[in-house]
From TrEMBL:
<keyword id="KW-0812">Transmembrane</keyword>
<dbReference type="InterPro" id="IPR016977">
    <property type="entry name" value="ComGF"/>
</dbReference>
<keyword id="KW-1133">Transmembrane helix</keyword>
<keyword id="KW-0472">Membrane</keyword>
<dbReference type="Pfam" id="PF15980">
    <property type="entry name" value="ComGF"/>
</dbReference>
<protein>
    <recommendedName>
        <fullName>Prepilin-type N-terminal cleavage/methylation domain-containing protein</fullName>
    </recommendedName>
</protein>
<feature type="transmembrane region" description="Helical">
    <location>
        <begin position="20"/>
        <end position="42"/>
    </location>
</feature>
Length: 151
């Protein structure tokens, strides 16, 4: 075939192009391995997520530690299920109460700081000259109802 005085040659299609059977089997083995490991990875991620999100016990302990350390030098009283502490050196009044499924602290009646969330019920009371808090909260698996001595 002649075109403008030059010769155009058709390219020969080689039979050696493409994947060999060994290359295809190797790719298939890698794909099957990755697909078989994927469910294990997902289940481990779910387990770690469950472990890391179940920290209610730690939050309760930290909340109690805060209340104990803050009220150590205060004069305490119970009013309507709330704990009222008066700091004699600064003359500030701190109140600890249950409000909207949370345990909160107010200073001089203004604003509040959330000490503990996911609380079903909480009340402060005095018994035998000791101050207590009765906490009812729900963690991931069960309801807990415990009584803690504050002072």
């Amino acid at each position: 075939m002649k075109y403008s005085g030059s010769c155009v040659h058709s390219r020969d299609v080689s039979l050696n192009e493409g994947f060999t059977l060994i290359e295809m089997l190797l790719n298939l083995a890698i794909a099957v391995t990755l697909i078989s490991i994927f469910p294990l990875i997902i289940s481990n991620i779910a387990n770690f997520k469950a472990i890391s999100s179940d920290n209610n016990d730690i939050n309760v302990e930290l909340c109690l530690r805060d209340i104990l350390s803050e009220t150590r030098q205060m004069s305490l009283a119970i009013e309507g299920g709330s704990l009222i502490g008066t700091d004699n050196s600064t003359h500030k009044t701190y109140s600890y109460s249950f409000h909207q499924l949370r345990l909160v602290r107010k200073v001089d009646g203004s604003g509040y700081i959330i000490l503990l969330e996911q609380v079903k019920n909480a009340r402060f009371f005095k018994e035998n000259n000791h101050f207590y808090i009765q906490l009812e909260w729900k963690d991931k698996w069960r309801m807990k109802n415990e009584k803690f001595q504050i002072r």
